UniProtKB/TrEMBL annotation:
It comes from the Eukaryota. Residues 41-298 form the DUF6594 domain. Residues 15-35 are annotated as: Disordered. It comes from Colletotrichum destructivum. Pfam families: DUF6594. This is DUF6594 domain-containing protein. The chain crosses the membrane at residues 230-254, 261-280, 286-305. Keywords: Membrane, Transmembrane, Transmembrane helix. InterPro entries: DUF6594 (IPR046529).
């Protein structure tokens, strides 16, 4: 899936946008929309919606408020639980068999509450409040858990958004003009997933069609993310072929064992570097792939030495 990408270089911002043969007209239509005059929230919403991949959808998550809300829910439930414990203590101390029966049998409790028994009615109201509140609390917990999984916006995307939003003056007034100022409290609804060094480098330097910023001080370029993905794939295939075939061919013609060991070390280092810069592999995966590659070279050299 294509992703939007921004970069700031000499006041130039690039953002990817899917383009195919007929999509050039769509790109021009996007740029025409960008030049239409709008103000305030309409202008900001229009600019965010111009990104077909949604990477410009950056919002505050209000972590502190969310945490406080959960604490309020928690404290309210603790207070309700204490009231329920008080009823349980009374049930344990009483000799009234009707109360004990109501504590043990739901149908009895319902019947007594419906007959305007004050104790049973109070207990039933408390149970209903707990049921309602704990559902709200659990929903809030689950929602907050999902929000915490959202990633922060890409630094380049945020810089581009800030530059567009702030110049020549904030696009929104009041307190809303500062909503981008705390990067630790921002989330992107669709952040870039391919963050390897090669992809990032190409995104920063890929040719892009520009649109003009609010104050005409810099351009926002839109390009085809699929072309970047294809370029990275081609480069990765070529590098993999060179590192595998090239290393084996080189080792075949070298006679010195010491030179072969040095070449194995060099090719292994190059392989680890290429995997680290051209893929999104984790450290454990890089170690595993590098060990497998080195093992192939060692087996080849060992077999060659044995045959000699």
């Amino acid at each position: 899936m294509p992703y939007s990408t921004f970069h700031l270089c000499n006041k130039r911002v690039s953002m990817s946008m899917p383009r195919s043969s007929p999509s050039k007209r769509r790109t021009r239509a996007h740029l025409d929309r960008a030049t239409k005059s709008k103000e305030g929230y309409a202008n900001v919403a229009r600019w965010m919606a111009l990104d077909a991949d949604g990477e410009t959808h950056i919002y505050r998550k209000f972590d502190e408020l969310a945490a406080r809300n959960l604490l309020f829910f928690q404290s309210e439930l603790l207070a309700l639980a204490a009231q329920l414990d008080h009823f349980d203590e009374k049930d344990a101390e009483t000799d009234d068999m009707d109360l004990k029966d109501a504590a043990m049998t739901w149908e009895t409790l319902e019947r007594r509450a419906a007959s305007d028994d004050r104790g049973a009615k109070s207990r039933m109201e408390l149970i209903m409040r707990i049921r309602e509140k704990i559902i709200e609390y659990h929903e809030a917990l689950l929602l907050h858990s999902e929000i915490t999984k959202l990633r922060r916006p890409n630094r380049r995307v945020l810089d581009a958004f800030l530059m567009w939003f702030k110049q020549p003056f904030p696009a929104l007034g009041g307190r809303a003009k500062t909503f981008l100022d705390d990067p630790d409290d921002l989330v992107a609804l669709n952040a870039v997933s391919e963050t390897d060094f090669m992809s990032e480098y190409l995104r920063r330097h890929w040719p892009a069609q520009k649109e003009i910023s609010r104050d005409a001080s810099f351009g926002i370029g839109r390009y085809d993310e699929g072309s970047v993905t294809l370029a990275v794939a081609i480069v990765s295939i070529l590098v993999a072929a060179v590192l595998l075939v090239g290393s084996i061919t080189s080792l075949y013609f070298v006679q010195s064992d010491a030179a072969k060991l040095g070449m194995i070390a060099a090719f292994t280092a190059l392989f680890a570097t290429s995997v680290g810069t051209m893929t999104t592999a984790r450290r454990a995966e890089i170690f595993a792939a590098t060990a497998a590659y080195a093992a192939v070279l060692v087996v080849f050299v060992s077999g060659n030495i044995s045959s000699n």
